[in-house]
Design brief:
The chain is mainly alpha-helical. The chain is 49% helix and 0% strand. The chain has 2 helices and no strands.
Length: 81
Amino acid sequence: MFAPAAGGVLTYAWHGFPQPPAVPVDAALDLAGNTAFAVAAVGLLVVPALRLRPARVVSDPSESRERPVPEVVGGPSGGRG
């Protein structure tokens, strides 16, 4: 579902460059606005793309940057029953 949405956003972003402005503005301002929108669109797509990326598989535990989770002894009851 992400790919079609991302394609639509990127198509909308690049389409602004050849499209004439809806209101008369200087060409430099039109280009700056189109560029700002395109950069914001790409930035908004990067976050979900990174979150949807599959987790990296580490074959050797020593290569992992994560710290091991300490074992809880006794649990929430403090070891009682």
